[in-house]
Amino acid sequence: MTAIAAISHKLPPQARVWTALLGTALGQAWRAVLAYRLRSVFVTVAVSLGIASLSVITATMEGANRRIDDMVRIFGPDAAFVRGGNMFSRAVGQRTRTISVGDVNELRRSLPGVYIAAPLSFRGSVSLVNGSRNYQKDMVMGSTEDFCRTWDWPLAQGRDISVADMERGESVVLLGMEVASELFGDENPVGRGILLAKTPFTVIGVLSSRGSSGSDEMDYTVAIPLSTMIKRFNQDRHYFQNVRLKFEDPQNMDAHAANVTSLLRYLHGLDGDRPNDFSVVTSLDIQRFINLIKNGLFIFLGITALAAMCVSGFVLANLFYISVSERGTEIGLRKALGAPGLAITLQFLCESVLLTLGGAGLGVIWGMIIGLTVTSTLFSIEFSPFVFVCSLLAAVLVGIVFGLRPARRAAGLEPISALKGQSA
Amino acid sequence: MPKQSRKPAQERSQERALVVRLADLTRTFRQADQEVRVLKGISFEVRRGEFVAIQGASGSGKSTLLQILGLLDRASDGLYELDGQNVSSLDDEALSARRADTTGFVFQNFYLIPYATALENVMLPGLYSGKTHKRGQERAALLLEDVGLGDRMDFLPARLSGGQQQRVALARALYNEPSLILADEPTGQLDSQTSRDIMDLLNKFNREGQTIILVTHDAETAAYAGRRILIKDGLIDSDSGHKP
After folding, report:
1. 3-state DSSP percent of chain B in helix, strand and coil, to 5
2. Using a CB-CB distance cutoff of 8 angstroms, which residues of chain B are in contact with residue A36?
3. Burial bucket for residue A233 (CB in 10 Å: 0-12, 13-18, 19+)
4. Tens digits of per-residue pLDDT, B10-40?
5. Cβ partners under 8 Å of residue A340, min gap 6
6. Residue among A34, A35, A340 whose CB faces B93 most closely
7. Binding-face residues of B in 70-89 toward A, CB within 8 A
8. Which of B184, B187, B182 is nearest to B167 (CA)?
9. With contact defined as beta carbons under 8 Å apart, do A256 and A221 qualify?
10. What sign has the CA pseudo-torsion A292, A294, A297, A301?
11. Residue B89 burial by CB count (10 A; 0-12/13-18/19+): exposed, middle or buried?
12. Global pTM?
């Protein structure tokens, strides 16, 4: 109140009147909030439940957005992934490898904006052995040279797969952080030998950890040169499972994806209505997919939160109506002493907003407890400053919207009848 | 007979000293389809420093008159000048502002704010008044000492006796230095000894120059006032007249 008084001297007269009114109202409201404890507790708890559901949904949306950002960053905002085979109508074991060496060369040569077109293959169920330590990996990746640049994934130690490794089909391997520690513990694995599918390989590098921002599985990646994979595991030399593409201007990913599709359809001789025998995925597709889930969640959680907020608002209005009729003499007295209607309205609005702000604080705490106990594999519930700001704004809104009618009713009381309403 | 006082020109010097001037004041309430005339034409003047008791049986219209005098209600017709200003036609907000600056109330039921201390209750009129007290707290403390509650300033009303609560209300009524104190049956809830104490305090304030109008049905209480106006059926029945 003293702070408000200090500021008010520097304001024009009209504003000074308002700050004086508001300062008085706040001071009186604070006393009433402390005095009518039961009402304060009920309103605060009721509002906190609404705010809790609101903050959980806001935090979930925040978590989902962060998840999208992470996934897009890890996938590569400028990247596209071409998979062989029609994902909707492929027959088992058939036409999964439809991307030929020629296709890759053509993509690299004639696609506008592309600067990397890297084919890759996978091999399932591979055992990795270092002495007595043994690790069963369900998927090993065959990659071309420049793994790090292709996947935007820096090394923690050692070196990348080189052109020479590719040309000679060297038995070298890159290990993800977790695989490295499974096989070598705290020792430095670079330069050491392991048995990969009973064949000796040399570890040339360890990939940096992505566990914190992405999925844990990223740190279990094992990558060898594509040429080595084809040679060792007798894979098809002419067709690949996947191609990773990277483009120069990531703003036009949809156009790039359309270019890739039409080029591959032309190369594969697909015309008219015949379905694609490949599929193209970009970071935009990942965003769209997660957004779909996010929006679904938003609607259902949003309705719940809205309902909860309305219920707490009505509880507040109800308790304030009771309070106004109980405090008729106080209101009548204030009016008899010269309080204008506005001063009474402001006092009750301040009481209501103070309580809803308290409810917001408590509600965010509930929300954080919910966030800690309920963990989702898809989205994490994250409490950022944005969530707090949203909760505070919603609380102020509820306080004003639902407090206004009781406050106006108090302001409209006739001083005489309000004073007579209660005998001592 | 009611004393109809139209001021002659030679008495104009005394106009400045008038706190209240009522001329042919009426108040009509509408109940269902019936019009009930509660005040049927009241005229009197109160000079600065007077202590006036308005007496009357219940239903005589004395409470309505007090509410109009205290700007809590408006006359249906007639003139009301308070401090030389015509207040008959002011709107609600203007009445509030006048109320804050010119009148102090003492009610039968004390009406203190239950969650505020004695000191804060005394300072309450200052919240809504245009008059600013630089040392409001000191002033309130002095007033509480004046009414004999210097040692109970931080008490909540619930911890004070009825007489003590009414003393706080007296101090509150004085806080804004009003032109007029209006007391509505101030001793109605008190025993006789406490009543005498309260009336003695009012008398003391009056001797210090405070204008007071008191409404009561009790002759013993009215006897404290220098001037008594008796209201009967909405008209002035008798007026003992100004006392110097």
Report:
1. 35, 25, 40
2. 115
3. middle
4. 444 444 489 999 999 999 998 888 888 999 9
5. B93, B96, B97, B128
6. A340
7. 70, 72-73
8. B187
9. no
10. negative
11. exposed
12. 0.76
Q: Which residues are registered as beta bridge partners of A247?
A: A114
CB atoms within 10 A of CB B62: 26
Give bridge partners of residue B86 from the DSSP assignment.
Answer: B81
CB contacts < 8 A (A, B) = 68
Pick the closest to residue B226 from B209, B204, B243, B213 (CA basis): B243
- What are the helix (H) ranges across chain B? 62-69, 92-102, 118-127, 136-146, 162-175, 192-207, 219-222
Cβ B80 vs Cβ B213: under 8 Å: no
Q: ∠ CA(A348), CA(A349), CA(A350), 5° rounding?
A: 90
Task: Tell me the residue ranges of DSSP E strands in A34-168.
Answer: 79-84, 99-100, 114-130, 133-143, 155-158
Instruction: Read off the pLDDT of residues A250-270 as tens digits, 9 standing for 90 and up.
Output: 888 888 889 999 898 888 888
Cβ contacts (< 8 Å) between A34 and chain B: which residues? 115
Give the span between the Cα atoms of B68 and B213, in whole angstroms. Answer: 12
- Which run of H or E residues covers position A324? helix A283-326
Q: How buried is residue A396: exposed, middle or buried, by Cβ count under 10 Å (0-12/13-18/19+)?
A: middle
Question: CA nearest B176 in A: which residue?
Answer: A337
Chain A neighbors of B107, CB-CB under 8 A: 419
Phi, psi of A183 (to 5 degrees): -90, -30
Structure tokens at B224: 């404290």
Cβ atoms of residues A119 and A106 within 8 Å: no
Answer whether B113's CB lies under 8 Å from B141's CB: no
Q: How far is CA B244 from the centre of its chain?
A: 20
Q: Please state whether beta strands A222-225 and A172-175 pair in parallel, antiparallel, or not at all (unpaired).
A: antiparallel
Q: What is the pLDDT of residue B5?
A: 46
Q: How far apart are CA B75 and CA B89, in angstroms?
A: 9
CA distance A180 to A135: 10
Q: Is the pLDDT of residue A301 over 80?
A: yes
The 3 state secondary structure assigned to B128-175 is: CCCCCCCCHHHHHHHHHHHCCCCCCCCCCHHHCCHHHHHHHHHHHHHH
Q: How many CA atoms lie within 13 A of A6 on its CB side?
A: 3
Alpha carbon distance A362, A36 (integer Å): 19
